[in-house]
Protein 1
Amino acid sequence: MVLLPGTTEAFTLVFFSNEIKTFVSSVKYSLNHLQPFQLSFKANVKNVTLKLSNTFFKFQFKNEKIHDKAEFTQIQKLKLSNLGNAPAHFSWDEPNKKNYTISPMSGTVDPGKVFDVDIGFTSLEGIFKTDIDDVLKCNLENGSTFPINVSGALTPSKCTIVGSELLNFENIHVGVEESKEFQIKNEGKHITAYSIVL
């Protein structure tokens, strides 16, 4: 580069590293091959980190109907904030308990941005345990692992069939449709959803 009298020029120094450590080095240059100069620089390379809006989620179904339907799934949002200057690539381990879902399972949080992840809890058929706890793990590429503790509470239901549990259709003629009614009584204090399995 040629410097004219009384002028100032800029030099760009680019630094990049995949190693997590502190670098101290220098760049040497000369003027007209006679006067040497040395510029020192220091760089501290750290893991990419994310700030989490929450590290514990509690799920509990309300005792109410929504549009004539019982609530089977609850969704809560986890905000991932990237306060660094590099993209943060994340991925989740599969939850141990099938009651929990994570969406999306992987993604990228750009520097200075916030990314929303949906944590879902679903009441599943055949699971009668009242308290369902798990630890969800978020892994950062070239970074650490963040645990998210989740706890879901299910209220046991108590329903009975009113009257006899035997529906006797007796003698039915071929090709003739016959129907009988039976009643289910909810003896608990909470809304209960049911399904008929034939």
Protein 2
Amino acid sequence: MAKILEQRPPGRNWRVYDWNTWFDGNVWLLEPGVDFPVTTKLQSVRGAAYMAARRRGVKVTIGTSDDEKSLWIQAHLPT
């Protein structure tokens, strides 16, 4: 049977991304080590963004920076 823990186990990345801010319609540059862990692959962040957008009913456009180390993201808000 599942158990309730007093706190989260150590060693797991429990970072919560700031989707509410990033889905405001502006173009945001998401940088490794600042907005997501350096060890996280860009494909993972891109996938998480698409899933977060779908949960919120928002359409997003996502691209890679010229150096392919960062992502840019823009939400398309309903008019």
Protein 3
Amino acid sequence: MNGAVGGVMLRRSRVLVAAVAVAAAVGLAAPSSAAPAALGRASGVTPSSTSPAAAGSSAHVSAYEYLNAHYAHLDRRWNNFSVATRLLGDLRKAGGQSYTAVAFNPAAHATFFVPTDAALRTLLTQVTGRDYATEKAVLAEYEAMVASDVDAMLGYGIVRARTMPAAAVLAASGRNLLTVWRPRTIHVAVYHFGSGTVISLWDKDKRLRNPRVVLGATNLNAGSWQIIHGIDRVALGFRNHMDRSWFDPNQYGLADEVNACVPGAPICSAGGTPGHGG
């Protein structure tokens, strides 16, 4: 059964796969001298306004409130988070979200890894084989999908009960982070090359490249309990073959999941999550 949400039709049995966005690049602080004190800036992610958190206010701002303040409008900047923001807004209007509900609660501690517009477009192209010229076209494709899938996908990019600035993500190299989805973990792997530092998030999919943290889009919404980091691919929480039926809720089974984490622990034991790609 479909439901109209702000002029958009969302299937109530499935939902979009978005993530959360980012705004001002605050630089990536290293936990030790082994990594640079700051890592690049990405053009096109500077917010149009300053959030209460960024301004030094004691008021905590939810991840969605921050994203909506800066990325509510579709644009031509593929390296920011317009599509993810709109998808979160659709989820909020549709109601009934389970995993992404934390994104609307400024009193909850959480860390969000949110895919850029380009990351969401790349995934669609990989699934459908089609090109998407505009953010509007990308958004429409996701909005035609089912709400529960979007909720699950966004949830897999949310680290539960822990506010982790970029320095803490760097320090978590070699460890698994417990997400709000199921719960299921995502593995952090940090590589240092001559050209710079790469933070790779090993997800469950074995076919597509792992998402990487966008170093110029970290520590967004800093000062609040819900911190945001951009990623350049969508994190996938299942191992099934990618095809058009990917958004089928049956793809999100737990039968093949290896999870050594104790429920409720924000960070689990080191290792354990195999990665893929480069």
Protein 4
Amino acid sequence: MKNFLAGLGLGFGLGVLFAPMRGDDVREMIAVRASELTDQARDTYQQVRDKAQGTIAAVTGKTQATGTEG
């Protein structure tokens, strides 16, 4: 697995170096993609967390807190 990731990183690096795009365009594209991936990861985390809380509530027989309790 380490070798695969090392090869992936090397390939990415070489691809960026020899890409037909300008450096500014590549950096902007990377920044946009990183932002999209961050948003996707945050959404996935929230979905998993909500599902886990619902499952825990169902197993324990407790209701979920809505955040509006006094």
